[in-house]
Specification:
With about 300 residues, the chain is of the alpha/beta class. Strand 4, helix 5 and strand 5 form a beta-alpha-beta unit.
Length: about 300
């Protein structure tokens, strides 16, 4: 039986972008409008300060301002997950202790990057974080960004042995690894897709949903696809997924979140501005997204 907190995070989560003005400051008006657009579009929960939110380019004051603004706009209409991760265990614990998490459902914490820790180090990293966090922790495996894979064996060891671990966002792109985790996980452990393009096959294996990038621009369409999967209506899910394939591919063609921000501008939702070291999507990708957008 899935615990109440777990049930709240089944379905479509969106890793929301941080809109910027041209000179680089945070565009809070667009941020507020985008949050409302997600909720009205049917997403089940929102993730603030994730990779797509360019959290590594934000200072602590900006992160606090985004969280405060985001929670005010959400007004408890959907659960909120907050990204708190990195490759310095003590620093993450200090950030957890210094953040008011009373209105946060869970923390999303990326597997340590750059250091390339051994499985034992990753296990103890998450054990310490989970032990200090007042809210549940979601593991986040994204080898393409971290440089190391949180393998199925280590994930399952954490899931079975470490209290306060809610689930994993799995973005390895390895469906065999995902299947093993889904098969052998504890009953209340969520396995969430971190890859928009693989969400349908991922959920057909028994996955619990997705933390999406494309949902920033197309929350209604992507939520409908995920809900169809949850209802075992894979005919409808395939139909929607096939329609979304070209736009999902295009938003990653010149890096993320550059691509999704270009699409958001095309759809009139936020300006196409990113912070260095990122750059805007190139003109060819922008034009491609502009053309694809016509079908939605």
């Amino acid at each position: 039986m899935i615990k109440k907190t777990n049930k709240e995070l089944v379905g479509t989560g969106v890793a929301i972008v941080t809109p910027f003005h041209r000179e680089g400051s945070i565009d809070f008006k667009s941020f507020e409008n985008l949050i409302n657009y997600q909720i009205e579009g049917g997403v089940d929960y929102i993730v603030f300060l994730g990779t797509t939110g360019e959290s590594v380019t934000l200072n602590e004051d900006e992160k606090n301002a985004i969280l405060h603004c985001g929670l005010e706009v959400v007004e408890e209409r959907v659960p909120v997950v907050m990204g708190i991760g990195g490759n310095n265990t003590r620093s993450i614990i200090n950030q957890i202790k210094n953040t008011d998490l009373s209105d946060i459902t869970a923390i999303l914490s990326v597997s340590p990057y750059y250091n390339k820790p051994q499985p034992k180090g990753i296990y103890n990293h998450y054990k310490m974080i989970a032990g200090e966090s007042p809210v549940p922790v979601i593991l986040y495996n994204v080898p393409s960004r971290t440089g190391s894979n949180l393998d199925a064996e280590t994930t399952l060891k954490i899931a079975h042995e470490v209290p306060n671990i809610l689930g994993i966002k799995e973005a390895s792109g390895n469906l065999a690894q995902c299947a093993k985790i889904i098969k052998e996980r504890p009953e209340d452990f969520l396995v969430i897709s971190g890859d928009d393009a693989l969400t349908l096959p991922f959920m057909s294996l028994g996955g619990d949903g997705v933390i999406s990038v494309i949902a920033n621009a197309l929350p209604k369409e992507f939520s409908q696809m995920v809900n169809a999967c949850l209802e075992n209506d894979y005919v409808k899910a395939r139909e929607i997924s096939f329609k979304l394939m070209s736009v999902i591919e295009a938003i990653y063609a010149d890096g993320s979140p550059s691509g999704i921000k270009a699409l958001l501008e095309i759809r009139g939702l936020a300006k196409n501005n990113v912070r260095l070291p990122l750059a805007k999507a190139n003109k060819a990708v922008y034009n491609l997204l502009n053309a694809i957008n016509e079908i939605f």
